[in-house]
Specification:
The chain has about 160 residues and is mainly alpha-helical. The chain contains 6 helices and 3 strands. The chain is flat and about 50 Å long.
Length: about 160
């Protein structure tokens, strides 16, 4: 996973379209757990605060109360719950929308209207894409030489 994150960071530094203030991308993960792990890794890069996790998951304490853990271990469900709990700090539910829905709407708006402020939307396979995308590691493995594909924009760009 670290290699994939490093490759994406590198591509954003060298690819003209991605390195511009208008370039952004959508990495696709194969599970909610994997998307959370990628999101956590991206928070340790220049994408901190310019990356969002989109999966419509609402953290609920009941999700983890019956999880069996050993000493110093964290289950997949706990990783997901902890990631979303941290992610939604400071977000308030409003207008009949849950905290998750408010967060995701804001992230998607930034992604489309202010790509310089939202470089990555980490999504889960089949979410938002309307097609059965391959898992992130496979998708980016195919792009090791070409890099991740930038998301098309309405703005013309002669440097791509």
């Amino acid at each position: 996973m670290d290699r994939v994150v490093s490759d994406i960071v590198f591509d954003f530094s060298v690819k003209p379209r991605l390195s511009s203030e208008r370039g952004n991308a959508i990495p696709v993960a194969s599970s909610i757990y994997e998307a959370c792990k990628y999101f956590e890794l991206f928070q340790k890069t220049p994408f901190r605060n310019k990356c969002a996790l989109i999966k419509s998951y609402n953290p609920n304490a009941q999700d983890i109360t019956k999880e069996e853990t050993g000493a110093n271990t964290v289950t997949d469900r706990q990783v997901i719950y902890n990631t979303y709990t941290e992610l939604l700090k400071g977000v308030e539910a409003k207008g009949g929308l849950s905290k998750t829905e408010v967060y995701e709407e804001a992230a998607k708006a930034l992604f489309t209207k202010e790509p310089a402020n939202m470089k990555l939307l980490v999504v889960v396979d089949k979410l938002l894409t309307a097609f059965d995308a391959p898992p992130l590691h496979l998708c980016l493995h195919r792009h090791v030489y070409a890099g991740p594909r930038p998301v098309p924009s309405d703005l013309p760009d002669q440097s791509a």
